[in-house]
Design a protein that fits this description.
The protein has 3 helices and 11 strands, in the order βαββββαββββββα. The chain has one domain. The protein is an alpha+beta fold. Helices cover 18% and strands 30% of the residues. It has a 9-stranded antiparallel beta sheet with strand order 2-3-4-5-1-6-11-10-9, with helices on one face. Strands 7-8 form a two-stranded antiparallel sheet.
Length: 266
C-alpha cells in the first residue's frame, strides 16, 4: 500500500475502493446492469458475476454469525480489463474499483498507487451516478466508504526462511523457534475530535497470518480494511475522506512492518 514513489516494489497484492450507497438500487434490473456496462465496455471488456458482498457497517466489535446479505438482490458484477489488472464492481448497494497484482511478488509490478486509484474511482463513479440520474432513479448519496489492501511478504528468500519478527514489529519470538502457522486480528477505532468517546467515525481492521501468494509461494499476509462513515458528506467530499483514511492506514502499516521488509524482495 505504500506510494510507489517511495518503494520500488510495494507488497500490495490487491487494493479496492468502495462506496456504499445510502439507499440501495432496489429496482435495479439486469437490463439496467447491461445499460451501465455499456458505459464501461470499451475500457473493461471482461464481464463476470461475483459473490454478493455483505453490508458495510462501522462498528468497534466484529460482527458474529451470518453476514447480512440481501438475498433478493441482483448478483454483483465485475467489469475488468483484458489482463484482469483493473476492475469495476457494481452491486445494488455499492460501487468499487480495484487493482490486482498479476505478477509474482519478486517481480516489479505496475502498482498504480492510492492517488491514481482514487482518481479512477471518482471518474468511474461519476459515470455510474450520472447514468442512474438520467434513467429515473432516485439520487444516489454516499453512506460508507471502504479502502482495502491485501499485502503479502515472501517467507522464503535467497534459500533462507524469514521469521514473523523479521516482518512484523508487533511480534517478537524470544524462543527463536520456527512456526508452521501464524494469525492475528485487531480493530483500531477512528473518532473525530468533536466526537464523544462512544461514537465512531470509522475503523481500521488489520488481519495477518500465513498464506499463499499469487505465484504459489509461502507468504505472510497483512491485510488492512478501513471504513469511514460518509452519510453526512456529499460526493465532493469523498476524496478528502478517502485521503484522511489512507493517511491513518499508512501509519498502521509503517508502525507494523519492519523497514527492510516494506517492499518485496527482487
Amino acid at each position: 500500500m505504500p506510494d510507489p514513489t517511495t518503494l520500488k516494489n510495494p507488497p500490495v497484492v490487491q487494493m479496492m475502493l468502495t462506496v456504499q450507497f445510502q439507499q440501495p438500487l432496489e429496482s435495479l434490473t439486469m437490463i439496467d446492469v447491461v445499460g451501465v456496462y455499456d458505459q464501461f465496455r470499451s475500457r473493461y471488456p471482461v464481464f463476470q458475476q461475483v459473490p454478493i458482498a455483505s453490508k458495510l457497517v462501522v462498528q468497534a466489535v466484529p460482527r458474529t454469525g451470518k453476514e447480512e446479505v440481501e438475498s433478493s438482490a441482483l448478483p454483483r458484477v465485475m467489469m475488468s480489463t483484458e489482463d484482469l489488472e483493473f476492475s469495476c464492481l457494481l452491486q445494488t448497494d455499492r460501487f468499487s474499483v480495484s487493482w490486482s497484482r498479476q505478477l509474482p511478488l519478486n517481480e516489479p509490478c505496475s502498482y498504480p498507487g492510492f492517488a491514481a486509484m482514487l482518481q479512477s474511482l471518482e471518474a468511474e463513479l461519476s459515470s455510474v451516478v450520472q447514468w442512474f440520474a438520467t434513467h429515473n432513479y432516485p439520487d444516489l448519496s454516499p453512506d460508507v466508504i471502504e479502502l482495502a489492501y491485501k499485502n503479502a511478504f515472501l517467507i522464503d528468500v535467497d534459500g533462507a526462511s524469514r521469521s514473523v519478527n523479521d516482518i512484523f514489529t508487533f511480534f517478537k519470538n524470544p524462543r527463536g523457534i520456527g512456526m508452521s502457522a501464524f494469525s492475528t486480528t485487531w480493530i483500531e477505532p477512528l473518532r473525530e475530535d468533536s466526537q464523544a468517546p462512544e461514537d465512531l467515525s470509522g475503523t481500521i481492521t488489520v488481519t495477518s497470518g500465513s498464506g499463499i501468494g499469487p505465484d504459489g509461494d509461502r507468504v505472510l499476509l497483512f491485510n488492512l480494511t478501513g471504513l469511514r462513515n460518509a452519510r453526512s458528506r456529499s460526493w465532493n467530499h469523498l476524496a478528502a475522506s478517502y485521503s484522511s483514511l489512507h493517511d491513518k492506514m499508512l501509519d498502521v502499516f509503517a508502525g507494523s512492518i519492519v523497514p527492510p521488509a516494506r517492499e518485496t524482495v527482487q
